[in-house]
Amino acid sequence: MTDLKIIPRQVGDAVVLTLPGRLAATSPAQIAEALHSAGGGVAPGTRLVIDLRSVGSLPGWLARTLVSFARDRDCVLVADPEQAESVVDGPGAAVRQAASLGEALAEPGGVRQPFPASGAVSSLAFDSDDLGRTEAFLSSAYAPMRIGSDTGHAGTRISRHSVDGLSADRLDLSFEMTYDVEPLGTICLCDVESGTIEDHRVDGWAETEAFGPGDLVSFSPPDRPYTGRVARAKYSITMFDPALLSQAAGVDQPVRLLGHRPVEAGAAQHLRTAIAHLRDDVLGVPGVGENPLVVAAVSRYLAVAVLNAFPHTASGERAGDGLDAHSRTLRRAIAFIEANLDRPVDIAEIAAAARVSARAVQLAFRRHLGTTPMAYLRRARLDRARAELRTAVPEQDTVARIAARWGYTPSVFAAHYRAAYGEPPSATLHREAGPRVRSSGSPSFVRAGNEQRSENRAAKTNTPATGRESAAPDAGSASPASEPDLAALGELASLTRMSARSVTDVVQKVVDVAAAVVEGADLVSVTVLAPDGRFSTAARTGKAAAELDRIQHRRGEGPCVEAARADGPGWVVSSDLTTETRWPRFTAAATALGCRSVFSAPLPPGPGPDRLAGALTVYSRSPDSLTEADRRAVLLLATHASLALANTQLRRTAEVRRAQFARAVDTRDVIGQAKGILMNREGLTADEAFDLLRRMSQELNVKLVDLARTLTGRHGELDER
User: Fold this and answer.
1) Could you read off the pLDDT of 467-476 as tens digits, one per residue?
2) Which segments carry the region annotation Disordered (predicted)?
């Protein structure tokens, strides 16, 4: 085995293989293995470009290895003149060669265009010690600028990947460089890895700034020139069109960033994640960056991360937006989204279709569905991808191809898919074909279930009364169905995406949707198992359901108790309680209340210390009335209800943390104001003023913040005395 690894890089329609500079200790077999490994996944007919410029002089054995690999392929060797002579003098006369990547990428007899057609990923690399060449390159790649160096040395290495106005660059400057740059015209994010950027001043700033390792900053407003000095630094630059900020914020006017440093560390980390996703998962994977849906999604993701990280001018809300955020707006917006899932869509287009402002659309989705328009769009595309996976033939299609059709990169698609459906997409693709009910994330879920029941009107469930399975029931039998409640369809579609104000709101909606879509249900309830082991009914459709739950909770037996326990079965069913033997005390009480059959599905616990487990239970007054289709619907409802509960718990935790942070900031500000008053009145230093406040707090037995608030609120009275 060899440690040599050559990473293929897509550049336009070609794939570039760059050989590392140190190959002295590498054997011909190892190089051949690395080349075949890197080029093995390249589609037939794709041009391969082997970049040898970092290697130096080529020994004869290396030239023969390269020629052997290149001879039967559409391959071009990029080499400097001395290297080219080494190849030509050997057996390489029949292999095409070029002096630069541009020449290698050009069509035979044609002229390479300086920029690719729209939608193609562009890659470039620059490596020079010449100050003049470096200034010329930087001026063409960024904005007109003047650079300088006291030593005359200009060791510069730059790489870039870009598509449709998005670019991700890495820069390594091994010298001290001064710069004076004209306005960039773009949002420019700088993340310093090593070294420093010093004396950075943007036109209009009162003071200079310095950035070091770990700093992620907005380098300069798009319309301002700037100056400064780079001191032997490695850093990354990410640039995009400022118009993306307006689109992401849903406003018509340009959005300006009001600060150049992130407001908090968490927001900075989120922004780094977005940049890494653009660089590694979209621009760094051949073919992915040429998908317009993927590019649109990553553009918005990056813009939203920037708005979340930096203060900006689009944080206000117009007074009339709340009045427009009604159900008609929501219906028009959803209709537009569902009709345009296969093309890039932004918030401005959705708002135009709904005939309201972008802010009103966002408020409508938040108010009625507990989500955002773009989150709804992503989930709707995920549902379409799942539908394709369920009908695809594994030998003819792949997960990556289906994910790309709906605007997902493979890694992001796999993570979102598993979170939404509880299984990897490959499991759905390769599952044995058979009758299936669609995911509850789609409005067609209930319709599909009812169609299936209509096709099997005569079939009935024959589950043994003593059965206790832990696997999901088959959808092979069904019972007659009524036309589904159209209002319930919309509620069901929003269930997974909702993030209500409380757990009570979530479980009540779960119960209401279950009662609407499960035909055999006469009573529905949700049992919650607290971390201390106590059971309680969180929501139900009637007093009889609460009484049936209470009997099970008090006696510690019954279907909802067993389903809710962590060590219980995956689901619990009894088709006829009059013949049930597992829970004698419960069955006696249940039959007395008129209940004849029951089905209970678990609600898996979510993450965190306050996680809630439980069970969704459906009761029927008739035996054998809960069909397989009904049971599958309950299982899917329970799964997505668990996700909704987890979202609500996370939201509640985040709100508590925000409130705590706000109180901490308020406390700090009040104490700082009090210190300033004492410093001004008494001529104290900051430490002396704080020490005085602390002593007064102890002597008066009053909290320090309360004392500071009193001082800041009444210092005018003190000045009059």
Assistant:
1) 333 333 443 3
2) 426-483
Q: How far apart are CA 225 and CA 203, in angstroms?
A: 6
Burial-class residue 687 by CB neighbours within 10 Å (0-12, 13-18, 19+): exposed
**Helix locations, 593-703, DSSP H:** 628-682, 686-700
Record the tokens describing residue 496, joined without a space.
Answer: 């997974």
Contact predicate 248/303, CB 8 Å: yes
Residue 60, token pair as written in the block: 């004869």
Q: Beta strand pairing status for 47-51 and 75-78? A: parallel
* 3-state SS string for 48-109: EEEECCCCCCCCHHHHHHHHHHHCCCCEEEECCHHHHHHHHHCCCCCCEEECCHHHHHCCCC
386-399 pLDDT, tens per residue?
A: 888 888 887 778 88
Question: Could you count the other beta carbons within 10 Å of the beta carbon of residue 334?
Answer: 25
| For the chain, counts of helices (H) and of strands (E) | 25, 19
Could you tell me the CA-to-CA distances from 460 to 78, 107, 575, 623, 715 in Å, in that order?
A: 71, 67, 11, 11, 81
Q: Is the Cβ–Cβ distance between 258 and 205 less than 8 Å? A: no
How far is CA 240 from each of CA 179, 203, 274, 292, 481, rounded to the nearest angstrom?
Answer: 21, 21, 13, 16, 53
306-348 residue pLDDT tens: 988 888 887 654 545 556 677 778 888 888 888 888 888 878 7
Residue 450 neighbours by CB under 8 Å, 6+ apart: 481, 482, 483, 484
Q: Name the helix (H) or strand (E) containing 493.
A: helix 486-495
Compute the distance between CA of residue 153 and CA of residue 92 in angstroms, rounded to an integer: 37
Q: What is the mean pLDDT of residues 432-436?
A: 39
Strands 14-18 and 47-51: parallel
Q: 640, 604 in Cβ contact below 8 A? A: no
Q: b/e string for 461-493 if b means 16 or more Cβ within 10 A?
A: bebebeeeeeeebebebbbebeebeeebbbbbb
Structural contact between residues 428 and 385, judged by C-beta atoms closer than 8 angstroms: no
Q: Phi-psi category of 556—alpha, beta or left, where left has phi over 0 and alpha has psi -120 to 50?
A: left
Nearest to 196 by CA among 174, 213, 172: 213
Largest pairwise CA distance in the chain: 100
- Which of residues 599 and 107 earns the better pLDDT score? 599
